Amino acid sequence: MKIPDSFALHTLHTLLSVLEESISIVNTKGEMVYWNEAAEKTFHIKKEEIIGRNVTDFFREEDVMNLKVLKSKQPVHEKYHQPLPDQHVVISTTPIYDENNQLIGSMSVERDISTTIRLNENLSNTLQELQHLKQQLSSKRLDDAFSKIKGNSQAINRLIYDAKKAAKSDATVLITGESGSGKELFAQAIHQESSRSKKAFIPINCGAIPQALFESELFGYEAGAYTGASNKGKPGKMELAKGGTLFLDEVGELPLNMQVKLLRALQEKEIYRIGGQTPKKINVRIIAATNRHLENMVSEGTFRSDLYYRLNVFATRIPSLRERIEDLPCLVYEFLEEFSSSYNKPLPSIHKEALNRLCEYHWPGNIRELRNLFERLMVLHEHSEISEMDITQLLPQAKQLVKPLYTVPLSLKNEKESIERERILQTLEKTYGNKSISAKELGMSRATLYKKMKKYGIGYES
C-alpha cells in the first residue's frame, strides 16, 4: 500500500516537533522555512516570528552554521557551537539537495548544552577557589613552625603555647623527655619562630662525640694546634651558629671538663679555639635537650649545678607518647600519608581494633618507634586495610599485650626472675634508659645490669 504524501509529511512534521533537539531549516536565500518547538524553547523565538524571515535578522551571520554549510556545501557533525553569547550547543548541519541534486537549503540539529557548560564553569571556579584556599592554608602552616608537631591533646597544645612564648625571647631553653619523643623537632620549631630564624640551626649530639674531640667540635682549633690538625684551622659549632641557634642534644652526656668550658663561654660570650690566643666573640642562642634527670646528676656530682641553672632558664618537658595516647590516631594517619606518598603506594585504611592495639602498647621508643613501625608496615603491607594482626606481628613486645586464658604457675626461681625483670624495667623507665644511674639504684655494677638485660631480653634505648 502506497503511503500518501500528506501522511508522510505530517508524520515527519510530528517527529521533528517532538524531538528534544532544536531543528532549523533555511533555504538558499537564508530564509527560515522550518523551526520546531525545541528551537523555540532553546532560543526563545516563536516560529511565527522567524518563519519566512532571514536568519540574519535574529543571529549574526558568522554565528549561523546553516549559512556556513550553504557556502561550503560540507556537512558538520557533532561540533561545539555558540550561536548566541550565552548559548552553547552541539550542532550537526547538513546541506539539502532536491531530486536533481540541486542545493535547496540546509538543516541544523542542535543539542543545548548551556546548562552543562555553566555547571562546568561553576565547578572550575569552585575548584580554583578551593585550590586558592588550600594554598592560603598551606602558607599559614608554613608560617607556623609548630605545625609539624602533630597532636590535639591538652598536653601538647599547652606545650606548644608555652614554647611559642619562649621562642619570642632569646632565653636559653632546656627540653627534657624520653628518647624519641620529639625534642629536636621542638628545638627546630622554637628556632624557626625566633628572631634568629634566618640564621643557622646547628645541632650537636653530645653523646655521639668522643671526649677527646669534643672541645675541637664545639670551639674549633687554630692552624697546627695539634698533630693531624688542618693547616687552615677549623671553626667550631659555636662559631658556625653565629647569630643563630646551637642545639645541644643529650647535654647530660657532656664531660665535666667540657661543662666548665661551656659555662664560661655562655657567661663571657666568647670562646678560645684550641691553640688560639685571641678570644672570639660569639652570638648564639642555646637550646639543650636530654633524656636524663639533670637534677639527680647535679646531686650526684656528675653535672655542674651552675651550668644546669644556666641552661634551665626556660624548661619544658615533652610528654611521652603513652602520656598523650589520644594523639596516636592523628600521628598514625600522618605517617600513613607520608609513607604512602614516599613509597608511591595506595593509602590504606586502618581497622579500629588495630588502633586499639596500638593504644594498648607502652611505646618505649615513643614517636620515633611509632614512625619506624609504620614505615616497615608500608613497605611490607599489600592490602587496602591494616588489621589488628598486622600490628600484632610487627610490635616488638606484642606478646605482652595478649591476655592469656590460662597462666602456668611460676616456680620460686622463675617468680624471682620475673620480679627482678620488672624492677629493672621500671628503673630504666624512671631514668629514661640511663644505664649508669639505673645500675646504682639497683645496687649492681653496669656490667651486671647489661648481663641481666641480655638475660631477660630487655632492649631499652638509652
From TrEMBL:
Instruction: Outline the extent of the PAS domain.
Output: 8-63
Record's keyword terms, sorted? ATP-binding, Coiled coil, Nucleotide-binding, Transcription, Transcription regulation
Classification via SUPFAM superfamilies:
Homeodomain-like, P-loop containing nucleoside triphosphate hydrolases, PYP-like sensor domain (PAS domain)
Q: Does the keyword Transmembrane apply?
A: no
Annotated InterPro entries: AAA+_ATPase, AAA_lid_NorR, Homeodomain-like_sf, HTH_Fis, P-loop_NTPase, PAS, PAS-like_dom_sf, PAS_fold
User: Which SMART domains does the protein's record reference?
Assistant: AAA, PAS
Coiled coil regions in record = 116-143
Q: Which domain of life is it from?
A: Bacteria
Ranges where the Sigma-54 factor interaction domain occurs? 149-379
Q: What is this protein called?
A: Sigma 54-interacting transcriptional regulator
